[in-house]
Amino acid sequence: MRLTPSAHTDSFCRDRLPPGEQWPRLVFDLPELRYPDRLNAATALLDDTVARLGPERPCLRSPHETWSYGDVLARANRIAHVLTAELGVVPGNRVLLRGTNTPWLAACWLGVLKAGAVAVTTMPMLRRGELAKITDRARPTVALCDEHLLDELPPGLPVVSYGAASNHTGLAERCARHPVTFADVPTAADDVALLAFTSGTTGTPKATMHFHRDLLAIADTFSRHVVRPTPDDLFCGTPPLAFTFGLGGLLVFPLRAGASVLLVERATPKELASIVAEHGVTVLFTAPTAYRAILGSGDGPLLAGIRRAVSAGEALPAAVAEQYRDTVGSPLIDGIGSTEMLHVFISAAGDDARPGRTGKVVPGFRAAVLDLDGHPVPDGRPGLLAVQGPTGCRYLDDPRQTDYVRDGWNITGDTYVREPDGYFRFVARSDDMIVSSGYNIAAPEVEEVLLTHPDVEECAVVGTPDPDRGAVVTAFVVLRPGVAPGPDVVRALQEHAKAAAAPYKYPRRVRFLDALPRNASGKLQRYLLRER
Question: What is the CB neighbour count within 10 angstroms for residue 91?
Fold first, then answer.
């Protein structure tokens, strides 16, 4: 794989790229994806937007304050000065970022890229042992950390804190010593800008390596062609900026469009609905479980001002999509993406959205459904989802690269069906297919049926070993408040499943939980359920 000359003094990331023969095939079909060889994503997202629309437009908001584009530019530039002049960061060094979704965290991310360094943004819920694994892999030079989250940082890592109570050595105080202008490092378009760690629903998290051009590519494909933001939009949502779903939806996309974003540190679904209504949010990013909770609590009408509502992170149940459309009056935008691909690559919006279907291939990408030998399967038959586009999987020095990339395709680990009209329908994660007495049963299909029962708040289905059938369908169920678990509820759920789907799919085992296990990004940890 031929790369352009790097601007990185520290060659750590480029030295650890996979061999060229292990890369996926990259596709740059759209004219907007042809970027110059020298490209700094922060310059394009921030400086170029200021030059185009002016510095006075609102950019980063919180429930308590608003920073204009000019404010953000000045802060990001000063942060870049602190990194380079005071902390000794050179292009290619990694900088660990730790904080909840606030304007300061967003400004730190932009400042890191301006300095030519590599951002390693971490989930605020991670604990010391988990962070130690990340620092062992990424080897950051320094950390910029919210003052409330300092305790879990591994020892020995230099850190500068930010927040209202930080002392005179804190980031804000350091920034005040420096000018509001900075000469952004002219990084190569294919210099690594971001190390994004996979959510780690099982096994050791992998570090995915994304270039400066990749950050613009997700805005110039999914955001431009499906979300279609305008400078007057106000974005909001719940995914952390450390989660690439959140980084795109709550920072890259609004800045690329010249829009503003309301950053919320934490919010329950009920609180999120109230925030949307109070602040006039027009573009919302959150997970299917949040939409279901908002609708189930009767707060759906609070989302009436939403112009574009995006659902990703997990499969969107058709019933939730239909209820949203009926309640709010516009369709949800479903989508599938991955940390390896950086963001969404199959989706549909507006009149093209169909409940129960993820959507069509986002412009700029290609997708196919393959069998285990890598051959395309006929439309209507399930197989492995394979994707190509302007982004792709590049693990940091990891032998699992060849598991994800095969014959130039990114193999996402999802089982899908491509229908004759070009729509893609999710069946299951490939490891969530249950084979019971010779039947192939998709766990999400059983979950959708159980979720239609009025007593079910949440549920997850896995296969558990059985000496006679090989595996049996086992449902872990969170009941609605006021419903007591017991044999009668088990029988009611089983009969409900038999009536709504083929009888062999019903859960032969039902277990009740107070809550489903989820990781820091909110993804369901099915392997913990299997271990039970």
Answer: 19
Rounded to an integer, the average pLDDT of 251-260 is 98
Band of residue 128 on the pLDDT scale cut at 50, 70, 90: confident
Q: Which of 36-40, 49-53, 100-104, 464-468 has the lowest mean pLDDT?
A: 464-468
Contact 142, 161 (CB under 8 A): no
Euclidean distance between CA atoms 311 and 323, whole angstroms? 14
Taking a C-beta distance cutoff of 8 angstroms, is the pair 103, 93 a contact? no
Alpha-carbon span 429 to 433, nearest angstrom: 7
Report the DSSP beta bridge partners of residue 386: 368, 411
**DSSP secondary structure, 156-170, as one string:** T--EEEESTT--TTS
Q: Residue 221 — φ and ψ, nearest 5°?
A: -115, -85
Look up residue 138 and give its DSSP letter. H
Specify whether the CB–CB gap between 474 and 490 falls below 8 A.
no
Please give the domain boundaries of the chain with CATH numbers for all domains.
Answer: 437-531 (3.30.300.30)
How deeply is 530 buried, as exposed, middle or buried, from its count of CB atoms within 10 A (0-12, 13-18, 19+)?
middle
Residue with tokens 């277990």: 511
